[in-house]
Please model this.
Amino acid sequence: MRTYYQRANTRDFLTNPIALEFGFGIILAIVFTRGRLPKKFATSALLLGLAGIVAGTLFAKSRGTNGLEPDIRFLAWGLPTAALVCSSLFIRERKSRAARILLHLGDASYSLCLTHAIVMTCYAKVIRTSLVSNLPPLVWPLAAVAFSRAVGLGTYQCIELPYE
Model:
């Protein structure tokens, strides 16, 4: 017989925003691999995802550099990100330069995942200093994303790719 504490831990895990977001990915994988995701949905998913990310970033309650509040994170970031992932599932069929760049970012996603926490920790320390207080607020998030991508792509090119 499970105790209250064990049930609470299971509930906390299953309702954790990160676990919910992971679940979105599992659902997308199942639907896509079974051929149940219409290709025509890709453009709509892209637009909905981008709009959701912008709206979530602008209007969702934030904890500063610690991210969004857990009770709204999956709505503000998780669902829009799932829509963006959904739109990217059909990108291999496109032959444009943008598609090649996005495919390269996808190939480097593991390196990006492993390195972005280090970059974001440095970002949090830098924005707490007075050195950057006179810069427009939009500069720092964009710089953090760009630098995070650059470090992740560099790691992919130098460490991960040679061993594929």
